[in-house]
Amino acid sequence: MSAATIAHRTCPLCEATCGLELTLDDREITAIRGDDDDVFSQGFICPKGFSLKALHEDSDRLRTPLLRREDGSFESATWAQAFAAIERGLSGVLERGGRDAVGTYIGNPNAHNLASLLYG
After folding, report:
1. What is the 3-state secondary structure (H, E, C) of the chain?
2. Which of 64, 81, 106, 76 is nearest to 89 (CA)?
3. Burial of 20 (0-12, 13-18, 19+ CB in 10 A)
4. Is the entire prediction scored with pTM above 0.70?
5. Torsional sign, CA 91, 110, 113, 22
6. 41 burial via Cβ count (<10 Å: 0-12, 13-18, 19+)
7. How far apart are CA 48 and CA 51, in angstroms?
């Protein structure tokens, strides 16, 4: 039996970026609580942060990109295949409608995350 370890992370679910203390048994999350030493959240987290274990383990969670087949079903793909499909689809939109045919929306939590904004 492996010893439990503690990992400190920042909750990714909203702009509050609360500090999390995760208890791990090997790679399994066994507990989530607020990080008492976090300068912003000071140990407090909301139900979203507490629910990250359930979200991480959800059997319906996507773990690979999916491409839609012509019959409407989905098939697993690599990231390279997924980005190639996006490029093909957006190229057609841009060819037909010009640069003003594409818009973006950046919302919570990415609008409040510097790395996400720089990537975008």
Report:
1. CCCEEEEEEECCCCCCCCEEEEEEECCEEEEEEECCCCCCCCCCCCHHHHCHHHHHHCCCCCCCCEEECCCCCEEECCHHHHHHHHHHHHHHHHHHHCHHHCCCCCCCCHHHCHHHHHHC
2. 81
3. buried
4. no
5. negative
6. buried
7. 5
Identity at 92, one-letter amino acid code: G
**pLDDT one-digit tens code per residue, 19-43:** 999 999 988 999 999 999 999 999 9
Burial (CB < 10 A; 0-12, 13-18, 19+), residue 44, is middle
Find where tokens 């274990």 sit.
53
